[in-house]
Amino acid sequence: MKAYAHLSHGGPEVLQVIEFPKPSPNGHDLLVKVIATATNPIDCKVRGGKATYKATQIPKIVGWDASGIVESVGDKVSTFKVGDEVYFAGNIALHGANAEYTLVDERITGKKPKSLTWEQAATVPLCALTAWEPLFENAGLRIPEDGGPNPNASKTILVIGGAGGVGSIAIQFAKKLLKFGKVIATASRPETISWCQRMGADIVIGHNDLKANLENVGFSGVNFVFVTNELNSVFDTAVDVAKPTGTIIGITGFQGVDAGKIFFKRLTLISEFMFSRSIHQEEPEKQGEILNKVAELIDAGVVVHTQNHHFEWHQLPEAHQLQESGKAIGKIGLTVKF
Question: Which of 271, 288, 316 is the last residue of a domain?
Answer without folding.
Answer: 271
